[in-house]
Design goal:
Largest sheet of chain A: 5 strands, parallel
Number of helices of chain A: 13
Structural class of chain A: alpha/beta
Strand content of chain A: 5-15%
Radius of gyration of chain A: 23 Å
Order of helices and strands of chain B: HEEHEEEE
Shape of chain A: globular
Number of helices of chain B: 2
Largest sheet of chain B: 4 strands, antiparallel
Strand order of the largest sheet of chain A: 2-3-4-1-5
Oligomer: heterodimer
Largest interface: A-B, 15 and 12 residues
Structural class of chain B: alpha+beta
Order of helices and strands of chain A: HHHEHEHHEHEHHEHEHHEH
Radius of gyration of chain B: 17 Å
Distance between the termini of chain B: 25 Å
């Protein structure tokens, strides 16, 4: 490798501003509550990519950094949302040409009979080219209990694509942490091809409340003192229950609260203030079955 | 004899990066791409075999190029063309189609004169290649 002719100075700050990454990072900071470790990692990765790009421009030895990633965490912790932002960041820095996100699960990749899997996987891969392929619950691809499972075929194709089309496609695998680890254990090929493992922590109660507030504000609803307290109690109970899916559960709970609010207003009839249309009352939340003690999830 | 047809028929054969750029142009206009192949070079042969399905929902040309590579590998000595279909109402037709591979040796066409009643002559062209059955015309097919 020859040294670059001149030792020209490089304005990192200007390059950073020019890439307009900060906007995206700010957006992530603003729109995603909590997730401090994830945000830090994204910042690290963005810096790494920026430096790699500058090295390339300066004529230094560059191998395109491996960009495949693994997002682990429980449901509703923002894996898909972050993947979307990641696709944008990669696009801004010119590591993918289009910056779109294609979400796939086992059903989209694995066929039902012999010879069905390869074209199906290829179809998804072709669609994702130039962008990011996000494979949700990737461990379902591998079913050790059935050695004739077609998932293996999809895995092999994906590995091949991750190696040969590195310039065209970035693959993000996502799922529960422990199951992903088992998956990587039995498919070392994946583990060695993935550079960045990001773990998404569960949200704390306060963060969930912030999320609820963010969702409601975006939809032009508001809460009062009583309903905030009701929401806090609701979440405390709901978090203990099975199938708690973090931010997704919050969104679903709010959707149901809006439903109750609507039927409450319609049932009451008469004249109401316009602001009543956007106010969530404590009763709208307290009617939830979570408070009835039978603990049926999804209520 | 170098057979030409479609868009860019007046140009020398496109390189892969030029093909990629043209394909990207189609995709940017939301025209699904189809890859077709044939070993019948007759100019009136409009019905070529399609390689796989037309490619909808693709955003980046590299997906099409992947398929094109597969087609070239499968049919190294066939004619292959790429076509972009514009489905928008009012047009609904092939917007662009060009040859992306041709056999190494193209023997050309024989002119046939058929003498009919009253010394009338009808002309037709027959490709030398079509003397052999489909699939055996330009050499190997994998």
């Amino acid at each position: 490798m020859t040294e670059p002719a001149t030792d020209a100075s490089i304005d990192l700050g200007a390059a950073f501003r020019e890439s307009r990454i900060q906007e995206l990072l700010d957006e992530i900071d603003r729109e995603l509550v909590g997730l401090a470790p994830v945000k830090a990692r994204i910042r690290d990765i963005a810096s790494l990519l920026l430096v790699a790009k500058l090295r390339e421009q300066a004529g230094l030895a560059t191998e395109r950094p491996t960009l495949h990633m693994s997002f682990t965490g429980r449901p509703g912790t923002g894996k898909t949302t972050v993947a979307q932002r990641m696709a944008k960041i990669l696009h801004r820095l010119g590591f993918v040409r289009k910056g779109h996100l294609v979400v796939a699960t086992r059903d989209d990749l694995v066929g039902q009979y012999v010879g069905h899997t390869a074209p199906k996987t290829k179809e998804v891969v072709k669609r994702a080219m130039g962008g990011v392929l996000f494979i949700d619950e990737a461990y379902y691809l591998y079913r050790p209990e059935n050695e004739r499972d077609y998932g293996q075929e999809a895995i092999e194709m994906l590995l091949q694509v991750m190696e040969n089309q590195r310039d065209d496609l970035v693959v993000i695998l996502a799922g529960y942490r422990d199951r992903m680890e088992t998956f990587y254990g039995s498919n070392p090929g994946f583990h060695s091809r993935i550079a960045h493992h990001i773990d998404f922590p569960d949200y704390a109660l306060e963060e969930l409340l912030d999320i609820a507030q963010l969702i409601l504000t975006a939809q032009q609803y508001h809460t009062d003192e009583g309903s905030r307290q009701a929401l806090r109690e609701y979440l405390q109970l709901r978090m203990q229950q099975p199938h708690f899916a973090n931010a997704r559960s919050v969104r679903n709970a709010l959707d149901r609260a809006k439903l109750r609010q609507a039927s409450r207003l319609v049932a009451a009839g008469g004249n109401i203030a316009a602001s009543e249309l956007s106010r969530i009352d404590a009763a709208d939340i307290r009617q939830s079955r979570v408070f009835q003690g039978d603990g049926a999830p999804g209520s | 004899m170098r057979v030409t047809q479609g868009t860019f028929s007046f140009l020398p054969d496109l390189s892969d990066s030029q093909i990629t750029a043209q394909v990207q142009y189609c995709l940017d206009h939301n025209w699904p791409i189809a890859i077709e192949y044939t070993d019948d070079p007759h100019p009136r042969n409009t019905y070529w075999e399609m390689f796989g399905l037309p490619m909808f929902d693709i955003k980046d040309a590299s997906g099409v190029m992947l398929e094109l590579r597969a087609c070239r590998e499968r049919y190294p000595e066939h004619y292959i063309r790429v076509s972009g279909y514009d489905r928008s109402p009012g047009r609904q037709t092939t917007a662009l189609s060009f040859i992306v591979q041709r056999p190494t040796h193209e023997p050309g066409f024989r002119l046939v004169r058929e003498e009919g009643a009253d010394r009338q002559v009808r002309y037709s062209t027959v490709a030398y290649a079509t003397d052999a059955p489909v699939g055996e015309r330009y050499g190997r097919t994998r």
